[in-house]
Amino acid sequence: MMKFEVSNQANLPTQYGYFKIKSFREYQDNGNILEHLVAFTDPLPDTPLVRIHSECLTGDVFGSKKCDCGPELAYGMREIYKNGGMLIYLRQEGRGIGLFNKVNAYALQDTGMDTVEANEALGFGKDERKYDIVGEIFKHFKIQQIKLLTNNPRKIAEMEKYVKCVRDSIIIEPNEHNKEYLKVKKAKLGHLL
């Protein structure tokens, strides 16, 4: 049984709109503690638009052009505010390998490896993320069906363990720095781009 705590609810006015927030503190079996954030509209519709977004410090905060994370986060927040729903921000940097290892993967990418090859060269799988806490978040909010804002078929399959799920695509304009990254997401990770 998963052990977690839920914070109080607070207000979060943003450049994208006005949200309510709660944090979920997850106690993992390995002793790690992860603190995730849920930003949501109030009231939530019966079938909320949901974006499950894994932390990407380089893209979300520093505006890295090597990935599509920052623009996906901004697009998701705008659409969620407009349509009603929830952003679940998971603390799983670098597809679950952590910031330190992500920077090492970036260094390998600088030598010509793609994102999957770099993670595997460091001894990780293509994608190390876990979504168990999301099921608990859905239970907490009494959510039974969602419109999932994603291009990742693995994420769709994971969410279908917890709720009825319909996909809503999220398409971000590529740039000169992330074109190959997006091709790898499609070819090696099966993303629906």
TrEMBL record:
Keyword field: GTP-binding, Hydrolase, Metal-binding, Nucleotide-binding, Riboflavin biosynthesis, Zinc
GO biological process: riboflavin biosynthetic process
Cofactors required: Zn(2+)
InterPro entries the UniProt entry points to: GTP_cyclohydro_II, RibA, RibA-like_sf
Positions that bind Zn(2+): 56, 67, 69
A Pfam family of this chain: GTP_cyclohydro2
Active-site residues annotated for this sequence: 127 (proton acceptor), 129 (nucleophile)
Binding site for GTP: 51-55, 93-95, 115, 150, 155
Alphabetical list of HAMAP family matching this protein: RibA (MF_00179)
Name of the featured protein: GTP cyclohydrolase-2
Protein species of origin: Helicobacter didelphidarum
Gene that produces this protein: ribA
